């Protein structure tokens, strides 16, 4: 099946509960069986079924199947949020004494795990500029347990060569985990580029409507099972109602992302030509330093971009955001409506101003997640606010 068909049908091919033609919300904590023997068989994994919704749930499984199919993976599992997916994956795969190599430009919450939480557990983390791939490759070659990547990065939309870095990691026996939230499986499949696990904050593009928190990983059965066993005991389970909303959102994922790709490129080209804009960060622009790499490994360039405003008075960004009419000033991305904000209040609110500056995130930067509105309206709104 192709992606638009997968979004609609994956996990939903067979008959539904009570003859329903659509997915039902199974709001049950536990599941009973007609006999103790049948119950025992399910508990021991000798036959399919569910015991307790912290472990598995029919509605949640449908969402997981959609992610599995979209990422062309052997297995997938879910979590209560995107950060739960990231933290449980790292917790399941790392041990004291391990070494992690990653990039400076990861999502703010991930960056905090790398700089604060993992070192407290005796795990060393080395972070490198994603643009400096030679330094990354040399660091990986010195040996590590895990390489953690994000491409495009949030919020400066840097691109790393996933295949090249995965090859370098596998040479030294390291695992590769890639956050694919910003790209989505419509635009990019990291598993096909050498990654061992792919991570999503499903709260963003996968759900698409800003009404459900969730996270997911996909990859080999062996690795996903290891993370699942860690998650089921740590308790970061996805709620069935949220799973229902996320699965429903995935049904229109391909349509939404195609429109957002188109809108974002048009907006980026407009911004690049505006006198009040200093620089635009979007991998679909030929001026982007990693455009060739993005074109090689992505089918579309995504629905998010960022840009810096020429701000000599120090109030330009705030004034600009307050003038926007067709953008929610809110801390998320990937929704059907356009959203805009600064990294200090969105992706990197957990970081200090000095940490953001070290990552190359200036105070004059605006993160702009493009929705599915008519792009002419969005450009008119941006023109008015910038003027």
Could you say how many structural domains there are in total? 2
What string gives the helices and strands in order?
A: HHHEHEHEHEHEHEEHHHEHEHEHEH
CATH class placement of the largest domain: Alpha Beta
Low-confidence stretches: none
Notes on the protein architecture:
It is a single chain. This protein has 387 residues and is an alpha/beta fold. The protein has two domains: 3-250, Type I PLP-dependent aspartate aminotransferase-like (Major domain) (Aspartate Aminotransferase, domain 2, 3-Layer(aba) Sandwich), CATH 3.40.640; 254-386, Aspartate Aminotransferase, domain 1, CATH 3.90.1150. It has helices at 3-9, 36-43, 58-70, 82-93, 108-120, 133-141, 162-171, 184-187, 221-234, 240-250, 253-272, 291-297, 316-323, 353-358, 375-386; strands at residues 75-79, 99-103, 124-128, 146-150, 175-179, 197-201, 215-219, 277-281, 304-309, 339-341, 365-369. The strands form two sheets. It has a seven-stranded mixed sheet with strand order 1-7-6-5-4-2-3, sandwiched between helices. A four-stranded antiparallel sheet has the order 8-9-11-10. Helix 11 (253-272) packs parallel to helix 15. The chain is globular, with a radius of gyration of 21 Å. The chain starts with a helix and ends with a helix. The model has no long low-confidence stretch (mean pLDDT 94).
């Amino acid at each position: 099946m192709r992606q638009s068909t997968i979004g609609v049908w994956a996990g939903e091919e067979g008959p539904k509960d009570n003859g329903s033609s659509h997915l039902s919300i199974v709001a049950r904590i536990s599941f009973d069986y007609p006999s103790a023997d049948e119950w025992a068989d399910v508990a021991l994994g000798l036959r399919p079924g569910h015991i307790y919704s912290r472990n598995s749930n029919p509605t949640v499984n449908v969402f997981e199947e959609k992610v599995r199919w979209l990422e062309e993976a052997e297995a997938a599992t879910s979590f209560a949020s995107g950060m739960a997916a990231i933290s449980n994956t790292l917790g399941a795969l790392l041990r004291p004494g391990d070494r992690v190599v990653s990039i400076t430009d990861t999502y703010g919450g991930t960056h905090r795990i790398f700089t604060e939480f993992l070192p407290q557990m005796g795990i060393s983390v080395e972070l490198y500029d994603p643009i400096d791939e030679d330094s990354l490759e040399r660091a990986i070659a010195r040996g590590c347990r895990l390489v953690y990547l994000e491409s495009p990065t949030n919020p400066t939309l840097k691109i790393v060569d996933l295949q090249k870095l995965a090859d370098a990691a596998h040479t030294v026996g390291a695992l590769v985990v890639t956050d694919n939230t910003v790209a989505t499986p419509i635009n990019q499949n990291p598993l096909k580029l050498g990654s061992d696990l792919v991570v999503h904050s499903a709260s963003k593009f996968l759900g698409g409507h800003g009404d459900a928190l969730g996270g997911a990983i996909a990859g080999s059965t062996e690795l996903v099972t290891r993370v699942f066993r860690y998650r089921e005991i740590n308790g970061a389970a996805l709620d069935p109602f949220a799973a229902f909303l996320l699965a429903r959102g995935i049904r229109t994922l391909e349509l939404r992302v195609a429109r957002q790709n188109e809108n974002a490129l048009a907006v980026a080209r407009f911004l690049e030509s505006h006198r009040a804009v200093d620089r635009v960060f979007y991998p679909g622009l030929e001026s982007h330093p990693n455009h060739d790499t993005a074109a090689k490994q992505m089918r579309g360039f995504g629905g998010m971009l960022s840009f810096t405003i020429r701000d000599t008075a120090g109030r330009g960004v705030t004034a600009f955001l307050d003038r926007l009419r067709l953008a929610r000033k809110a801390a998320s991305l990937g929704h059907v409506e356009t959203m805009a904000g600064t990294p200090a209040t969105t992706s990197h609110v957990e970081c200090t101003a000095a940490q953001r500056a070290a990552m190359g995130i200036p105070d004059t930067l605006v993160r702009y997640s493009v929705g599915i509105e008519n792009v002419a309206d969005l450009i008119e709104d941006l023109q008015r606010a910038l003027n």
